[in-house]
Amino acid sequence: MPHNIRWSEATLIAIDLETTGKYPLDAEICEMAAVKWRGGRVIDIYQTLIKPSTPMSQEVIAIHNITNEMVETAPTLSEKIAEFHKFVNDGWLMAHHAPFDMGFLTWEFERARLPLPKNPVICTSLLSRSVVSGVSDHRLQTLARHYGIESGTAHRALDDAKTCLEVALKCFPIVGSDCHLTHIFDAQTRSLQWANFSIEYLIEKEIYRLLVRATLDKREVFLTYDGGSRPGQIRRVFPLGIVRNPEGDFLVATEGDEVQTKRYYLNKVNSVRLVADGEF
Question: Which secondary structure element, helix H or strand E, spans residue 98, and what is its range?
């Protein structure tokens, strides 16, 4: 779809996910929602809980208040991902902190052999930083209070998707009441293309394919890292997730016996080897 369409004439689809953790490959989606807007009004809504493959921790439940009992009879993601993909495929997607949602959805679309959406994504967090002043931060709830938006229950997918849409509809006229989507993307200052979040593209390189395998299989690796306080040294790490990010893709892992997580930027990883069973 062309970028030169006026935002007021576009089909806008605000999305939100709730997950069982922070990082793709390790955590799973437990709720997803989308709100479709066209012609000045909401024309359709999608929402479903998703049953993860393993029980959620109390730490995660405390964030979104989705309990294991609530998802016990919910469909699995494999039963719903194609339906969600179809729902969001006829408009311009947006989300608050869009890279988070894009990271999870790109992985799940690819696993389901569904094509990635072609259009870039609008991030209301990035956009608000460019056009909204007089707020203490650019969190979704802060922006909702700033604009007097009824935000419902925070960290529930449908309410957050609705709030994201309302925040966008406040931000867009600041850019220009009659402006095109091109101007919205320019104001956002960062292009969020689905291909840049692809795990399939990432694993075309053997070194990253090993990291993805280790993350999925929950196996330790030895890696050589040209960063941090010990550049070039071999480190034994336990991968917790891989994050594709416009500012640099990184592995999240713990090192040795440490509990604290660290980031290892992929462009500084020089070698990777899976730790063999019984190897120390």
Answer: helix 98-111
Domain assignments of the chain as residue spans, ordered by start: 7-197, 204-274
- Say if strands 234-243 and 41-49 run parallel, antiparallel, or are unpaired: unpaired
pLDDT digits (tens, 9 = 90+) for 198-256: 999 999 999 999 999 999 999 999 999 998 888 999 999 999 999 998 889 999 999 98
| Among the listed residues 86, 87, 68, 83, the one whose alpha carbon sits nearest the alpha carbon of residue 28 | 68
Q: What is the DSSP string of 229-251?
A: TSTT-EEEEEEEEEE--TT--EE
Domain 7-197 identical in fold to domain 204-274: no
Q: Which CATH architecture has domain 204-274?
A: Roll (2.30)
What token pair was written down for 18? 């709730």
Q: Is the pLDDT of residue 119 over 70?
A: yes
Contact at 8 Å (CB) between 223 and 237? yes
Fold classification of 7-197 is: Nucleotidyltransferase; domain 5 (3.30.420)
Q: Name the amino acid, one letter, at 187.
A: A
Mean pLDDT, residues 255-275 taken together: 93
Residue 259 tokens read as 């509990």
CA dist 168 and 147 (Å) reads 11
Residue type, position 237, single letter: V
**3-state class of 1 per DSSP?**
coil
